[in-house]
Amino acid sequence: MCTIQAKDVEMNDNESGNPDFSLGDVDSEGGPFLIADAAVARKWGGLEEKWADYNRAWDVLKNNPDVLAGEIMIGDARAVVWDARGPGTASLFRKNADHLILGRFWINEQDDFVPAARDCLAVGIERAVVFGTIEVTSGVLAILWTPESGSCIESFIVPPDGRPAGEMGIESSSLLVEISPGTYRCLYDDFDREEWIFRRCHLLREG
């Protein structure tokens, strides 16, 4: 099986049923993603200070081996880390105004991406496990591959490609997205179909 990025697949509103079907992709060469309010994520050290924050992210995974996700503090604010199970690309989708899904896919052919993504959005969350909560106050969500430094977030103005303006080790390893401020519960689940496999991180706005 292979992994395909949403940006590699031409889609339109009729195919997806949602004009915000894909919000962008974020890449990992192995290791978890950090998910947080952009104002919180910009304080993340990544590999700086002798890999201190990056090692803390791995400690979270070691303490939660069944979920490979959990909360992590950055100063006095909460963030979460979520592992996509190995190197690859995760695609971010807006299911509705209060529900985002970060999905990692294993598919056989590029043509399978659209039906796999539809399946990812359609399947309910009855099996999902809550692993954390984050507060988004800036109106911008940041997703960073954990070796990256949050200093790449130089502004809360989200460019068309969603990439932070600052220096990154890998250009596609970080993503900024405008979302409604609020408290978001973070949940994990995964599904193994005959045609494809997907692992999901849900962000559900409360209230």
Number of helices: 4
**What portion of residues belong to β-strands?**
35-45%
State the end-to-end distance.
Answer: 39 Å
Described by the principal axes of the CA atoms, the overall outline is globular
Instruction: Give unreliable regions as ranges.
Output: 1-20
How many individual β-strands? Answer: 11
Q: Helix share of residues?
A: 10-25%
Sheet with the most strands? 6 strands, antiparallel
Q: Structural class of the secondary structure composition?
A: alpha+beta
SSE series: HEEHHEEEEHEEEEE
Q: How large, in whole angstroms, is the Cα Rg?
A: 16 Å
Strand order of the largest sheet: 1-5-6-11-10-7
Mean pLDDT: 87
What's this, in brief?
With 207 residues, this protein is α+β, with helices and mostly antiparallel strands.
Please tell me about this protein's structure.
- The structure is a single chain.
- This protein is α+β, with helices and mostly antiparallel strands and 207 residues long.
- Helix content is 16%, strand content 39%.
- The chain is built from four helices and eleven strands.
- It has a six-stranded antiparallel beta sheet with strand order 1-5-6-11-10-7, with helices on one face.
- It is globular, with a radius of gyration of 16 Å.
- It starts with 12 loop residues before the first helix and ends with a strand.
